User: What shape does this take?
Amino acid sequence: MIPDTTLQLLRAVYRGQQAGYLTLTAIHPSKRLPTPSRHIPITDKTAVHQALADLLAANAQGWGAYFSVALRKHPLDRWKRGGQADLLVLPALFADLDGDLSTSFERIQAAGIAGMPAPSAMVGSGRGLHLYWLITPTTDFHTANLVLAGLAERLGGDVTTAANALRLPGSRNTKPDVNRPCQLLWLAEKRRYTLADFIPFQAEAPPPRQPTKLPIRWRAPPPTLRGDKPTLLSDELNPDLVEAVVHILLRDYAGFVQNNGWIGALCPCGHNRDQPGRHFGFSPQHGVARCFGRHGQILLKELCTLIGVDPASYGGLYRKT
Ligand SMILES: [Zn+2]
Assistant: This one.
């Protein structure tokens, strides 16, 4: 009933926690209904499981499902999520990238080259990406807020604070214009850091009070398929991996084989209104995907991340020579 991936991420984040309350919140997409929360002792596994099951049941009824990453000191009121004064510890840093996937991946890559620690987990939020960095739990919320602001700035994400909640992986993003699963794409549980590792990336000024969105530059979509020269050569790619990608597009993204040999499917980056093949196609021959909406060319490596395929478990991206 509770997806394994939900529990995997929560276990990784709250490993070893001996105290504190996990805050779970249901938010109605219309935002016109009140927002109930529950605050569950993190040490009471049965209660946590029951509360997650209840939250996912509400999610099936259309409510958005969220969890607050920092544990609370006390069980709060049903209508409160808590502010900084209510926090006990923050066990992970996070970033909420709500824009164009290609741009997000470019920024993640650039940040990595600049020395930013690699994320411990990546979640497809239904519309963008959530990144998590597992850290030794910290109570220095002031520094954590500066780091969260710095991560958001570098990666082009929404400004978040230590008190924030994120959409629960394994739930559905029920926003009417999204309506897609929020899912754990990968988890590298051994990537554990300390807050100090992120000091070089903290924002210089305190974060703004109002969440602001940084401008995202959209990649211009290609006009037509004709004349399109994929950048990868088909004979270099690992056929086992390509086959796995095709299988998942057919199974999970309503894919079908088009007359030209491309796989038409729902765009894994997400669109307001999408139909299989309307925006998105994958060429098994070239190992390249294209979104004729705003997402442009998607390389096999990026596509694998989006749909949760680990190339390593198929022998890597490229054919062994
Ligand atoms: Zn797209």
Observations:
- The radius of gyration is 20 Å.
- The longest strand covers residues 87-97.
